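USER: For my understanding, would you kindly supply a protein sequence with its structure tokens?

ASSISTANT:
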Amino acid sequence: MKAIKHLVITSSLALGLAGSALANTTVIVHIVGAPAFRQPVNDAIETIVEGFAGAGLTASSAPNPLPAVGNRTTNSTIEGAKANQWLIPNFQSGIDLEINASYTGSTAGVESVASQVRSQKFIADGTGTVASPLGGESASTVVNPDVNWIANSDTFQDSTLFTGTQTFYGAARSGSPFTYTFQTLTADLGNSPGGVEVYHWVASPNAPSDFTNITTAQAKLLYTKGSLPLAFFTGNSADESTTVYALSRDPGSGARTIALAEIGVQPAGTNSPINSYVPTITSGSGVIDGEGSYVGGTITAIAQAPAGQIPSTGIYEAAGDTGYASFGTTTNGGSTADSATSSNNYGLLQAVTATPPSGAIFVTYLDNDDTNEALAAGNSYAGASAKLLTYNGVAAGTTDGADDHAVAEGEYTFWSYESFLAPSGQSSTSQAFETQLEAAFPQFSTLPFNDLNVSRTTDGGPLSPNY
């Protein structure tokens, strides 16, 4: 279970509980899905919460200290938290609303909500005042889906394997398979995505000055082979002796689904294997940044990502086709500690900001927020910053909410929609909350949907003009 780093019970919240919660029905809405846009989702939820008297954040995986109410949507530690829990007393007549969010991966979130079977990890209710009146989450480390789950997804459902009836293995091929039938999820009650998530390619801090760009073809071959000579990217024969290695999230990640669809390794709805690596980082050689993630450090060894069961999906994947369970680390609620690929408690963000051995460079994909975290590593903390690469010769901005001409006009194509997906049978309370969430979300998104002048109907697919 994700560690609770801080528990906040405000006096107004306690008063609200004392006056209403015992007489009301508690409805729990679970938010699961993409860490890639957890920050705007957390901001949008906090905005809604602050509009209700007596409502508040009750627990968070964010590092201390938590900011005061009214300051949680501007450079707040809870923005990037991987798990948060809020309470809104009297959300509706006779109803208290508990919102429990856990961001382990978009694809894993789609699997859980569409199957109504797969479990996810959430913060349990606290003790005393919070737990007793609510009667909400138990101390269990996992919670099974119900109709009041919402997936914040940066992928189309059809881009995942979780449509129709599918059979998967939870262990090696000799193990027992399991079969799920996935329902078609309702996307966006407002009939359009809330925003656009932009992704970037980044390289290790030691990347040389002549490694500035990566093309679709180069990325496709890199993630097919796993490693390539640096000269393949630079055209400089002197770089033949240096090797570029691919790093990846595991298959529970929507960012991975987007990246592999974008470069043509896994067109939407397919499952061609990739080959990625996991470096060994010297224990204690990194530092914790302001978001609670380890960055920097020293890499001492490089190995193929080992075969194993993916923590967030329960599906077995072969060696090379696994990856990191989280961008960040368990210090900020990340899920790396229970992943076979990251037993040393570090995530993808640290792997690409750590210093590789001589003759090695790592490349990976990051969303806007994690890209900024990687680029700031050497400026604010020990070690050096990761290097931002252009994609097909085009650069996209890394500032959330800013005008981005390259993305808006279709010059930069490495992006996806940010949507909210819900199962059939969703209660009126859950729908009411989702409606408010969708209304609040665009102001915090990387790029509001209405700013986009192109569109696509599948992840990684061709772009069409909106005019």
The CA atoms of residues 1 and 141 lie 5 Å apart. The chain has two domains: 6-195+418-465, 200-398. The first strand starts at residue 6 and ends at 7.
